[in-house]
């Protein structure tokens, strides 16, 4: 992921399943959630359709997006 203006982002191919954001390749600090709202140690984020996505995480405002390209 890259960091710009307070938001982490990446374009990635996602599979149907679940995901979370984690810090430094560890599970000590991770963000999950639903409906675009992230929470520390929150539930897994559901991915309902496989494909290329632009994924963002705004840790300051605890918001995330998964936008299919």
What labels would you give this structure?
69 residues, mainly beta, globular
Tell me what the structure shows.
0% of the residues lie in helices and 61% in strands. A four-stranded antiparallel beta sheet has the order 1-2-8-9, with no helix packed on it. It has 69 residues and is an all-beta fold. The chain has strands at 2-4, 7-14, 17-19, 21-22, 30-34, 37-40, 45-47, 51-58, 63-68. The model has no long low-confidence stretch (mean pLDDT 96). It has no helices and nine strands.
The SSE order reads EEEEEEEEE
Apparent shape: globular
Query: What is the radius of gyration?
Result: 11 Å
- Give a count of the beta strands, DSSP E runs of length 2 or more: 9
Largest sheet: 4 strands, antiparallel
Q: How far apart are the first and last residues' alpha carbons, in Å?
A: 17 Å
Strand order of the largest sheet: 1-2-8-9
Number of helical elements? 0
State the helicity in percent bands: under 10%
Which structural class fits the helix and strand makeup?
Answer: mainly beta
Mean pLDDT: 96
Which range does the strand content fall in? over 45%
Q: Extract low-pLDDT stretches.
A: none
Topology (SSEs and partners):
Elements: E1 2-4, E2 7-14, E3 17-19, E4 21-22, E5 30-34, E6 37-40, E7 45-47, E8 51-58, E9 63-68
Antiparallel strand pairs: 1-2, 2-8, 3-7, 4-5, 5-6, 8-9
């Amino acid at each position: 992921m890259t960091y710009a203006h307070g938001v982490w982002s990446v374009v990635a191919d996602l599979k149907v399943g679940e995901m979370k954001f984690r810090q430094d390749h560890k599970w000590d600090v991770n963000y999950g959630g639903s409906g675009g709202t992230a929470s520390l140690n929150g539930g897994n984020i559901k991915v309902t359709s496989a494909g290329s996505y632009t994924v963002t995480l705004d840790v300051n405002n605890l918001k995330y997006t998964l936008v299919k390209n």
